Amino acid sequence: MVFSSNIFLLYFLPIFLLAYFITPQKFRNYTLLLFSLVFYAYGAPDFVLILVASCILNYFVVRWMAATVTQRKRKLVCALSILISLGLLLYFKYANFFVDNLNALLGLAHWDAIPWIKVALPIGISFFSFQSVTYTIDVYRGTSQPSRKLTDYVLYIMMFPQLIAGPIVRYSTVAQQIVERKTTAEDFVAGFYRFVIGLSKKVLIANTLAYYADYAFGMNSAELSSGTAWIGILAYTMQIYFDFSGYSDMAIGLGRMMGFRFPENFNDPYTSQSISEFWRRWHITLGAFMKEYLYIPLGGNRKGTARTYLNLAIVFLCSGFWHGAAWNFIFWGVFHGLFIILDRLFMLNVLKKIGKIPSAILTFFVVNMGWVLFRAEDFSSALGYYQALFSFRSGGVTGMTAHVWVVLALALLFSFITMAPKGQVLQDKVFVHPYTKKSAIVMAVVVLVLFVLSVGSLFVTGFNPFIYFRF
Fold it and tell me: Are 3 and 465 in contact (CB under 8 A)?
């Protein structure tokens, strides 16, 4: 089940909200947990018991670790807990990749391939695993106490607003909110507004641009005109942002409706003036996770320049591999890691000298080139697409409609609006609360129109891909 589906919008969500708010305050966590399990089981019934079992096991392992006195034993139990979380991720997400590559090497040596049945990927396994790891390490470090109730821990891991695609929420961020929270009328209204804004970003913008991105990347690269290739990657650049940030908005909004405050996950990333800044604005919770639980433990920038660059390379290699078990994702991570290192070497000084607008344009260009690796089916397809981009092949832009042109223009406008005079003020009026009486009325009308248009679009098209489900 996805948020941007009529079964969720017209059936699951209204029934859940009714059940949740008629449940006495002290029992609402059980209602939320029950609906979260139903939500996940609807889309992945074969995996829900595995994930719940791993939660139960990890809960008791972490409590064992917290009760352990000797440091050496605590480390061993901590490693066991992390192994449980990452073991699931490694098996379900990467087993096929490793076996396929091993069989390719065996084939080159003219040896028999290893018999293997493809492993299905549970939706949201990466986010599930990372949140488990944050819980374990935070308790190990003493920054959080272990959850007192098993159901509270399972709820933290499997809460349906952020289970499938984040944001990645640290246990210390919501531990107290799980135990005790209140939902005010303002919280509910602001959360619903945020949810509908995210829904419209996903359905009205990302889904529309997905048609053209699929069209461009689905063509034979030898027949792809340069104009179509450029508009295709621009459409995908906008699609992935409005798709993923829209989902994050919906998750944050749903949490707010129940009294949770989830961390922000995006902050106008395409206005960045360097790749380093881009990664402070894009998928913010993943960047924070990588910094806190990988980069700093590796030594961060505390062990000299060469080691700093090596640590950055490892982090972005892992980031690329986290996004997908394929070589093009690995190269995408290496691509961004290279530019992060170049920033530290000299690029930040260069970008500062050329000014704000040129820096943002150059950074946006680099990000677009990276998305080619991310979107292509494999590395060879990415190379073919790059060739189409820079071959200056004639043929114009094919396959575009007036509707797609308008949506693409709106996507670009919304992505860069904060760079315009008073653009940040205008955006803050939508996302910063509390609303004034006048702005609340305006937002209510806008939200109602967007909701009707989004639901109507889902009924008409039935086309509803979601990029980060496969991660």
Answer: no
- Do 161 and 251 meet the contact criterion of CB atoms below 8 Å apart? yes
Cβ of 305: how many Cβ atoms within 10 Å? 10
- The ranges of the chain with pLDDT < 50 are none
Cis preceding-peptide flag for 465 (omega within 30 of 0): no
Maximum distance among all alpha carbons in the chain? 74
Gap between the Cα atoms of 443 and 191, Å rounded = 12
Count other Cβ atoms within 10 Å, centred on residue 276.
Answer: 20
pLDDT value of residue 343 = 94
Q: What is the pLDDT of residue 431?
A: 66
State the Cα–Cα distance between residues 343 and 337, nearest whole angstrom.
10
Nearest alpha-carbon partner for 49 in 165, 158, 163: 158
User: Which residues are tagged catalytic?
Assistant: 323
Amino acid at 379: F
Identify the CA nearest to 92 among candidates 126, 136, 42, 55: 126
- Tell me what pLDDT residue 470 has: 58
Helices 379-390/327-342 angle, 10° precision: 60
The answer to whether 170 touches 284, Cβ cutoff 8 Å, is no
Q: What angle do CA 459, 463, 466 make, to 5 degrees?
A: 120
pLDDT value, residue 93:
86
Report the pLDDT value the prediction gives residue 464, as an integer from 0 to 100: 66
pLDDT (tens digit, 9 = 90+) per residue, 136-193?
Answer: 999 999 888 999 999 999 999 999 988 877 688 888 888 889 988 888 888 898 899 9
**Sign of the dihedral through C-alpha 18, 22, 25, 30:** negative
